[in-house]
Design goal:
The chain is an all-alpha fold. The chain has helices at 4-12, 29-36, 52-69, 75-97. It is 44% helix and 0% strand. Helix 3 crosses helix 4 (75-97). The radius of gyration is 19 Å and the shape is globular.
């Protein structure tokens, strides 16, 4: 397995955006996130919003899987997982925002702008294997 720096560079060198982007030239995560929010994802990603946080998340989880489970991934696997995770998230958000049919048609609910989205998570612990 190549060094983590080289490994990460291989992931970021994938054709992600129409414009060039080198995360090593950005001073902070916040700056990188803001810089990528205006970049155009290349097709066939199928992701409208920036994929940057998803790539970061999958790099992080792959790092943890390597450390704690000795699982090793290829850079292209990381990139593919980031795309699929982003698509799953977008699909889940679309289903949350779908309009509700009012029960009482005489007093329909007022439509407030959506400023918060609930995020439900779940996990299970297997004590015999120490895995979540």
């Amino acid at each position: 397995m190549p060094r983590s720096e080289s490994f990460s560079r291989q992931i970021w060198s994938q054709n992600i955006w129409k414009q060039d982007f080198n995360p090593t030239s950005i001073p902070s995560f916040e700056s990188a996130f803001l810089a990528t929010s205006s970049l155009i994802n290349l097709p066939p990603l199928g992701v409208k919003e920036t994929i940057f946080p998803w790539v970061c998340w999958v790099i992080w989880t792959a790092r943890n899987q390597r450390i704690f489970e000795n699982r090793v991934f290829e850079p292209m696997d990381i990139f593919s997982k980031a795309i699929s995770t982003s698509r799953e998230w977008n699909n889940a958000q679309a289903s949350l925002i779908s309009p509700q049919v009012p029960r009482n048609l005489q007093n329909p609910p007022s439509h407030q702008p959506l400023t918060e989205l609930p995020c439900f998570t779940d996990t299970a612990w297997i004590a015999s294997t120490n895995r979540a």
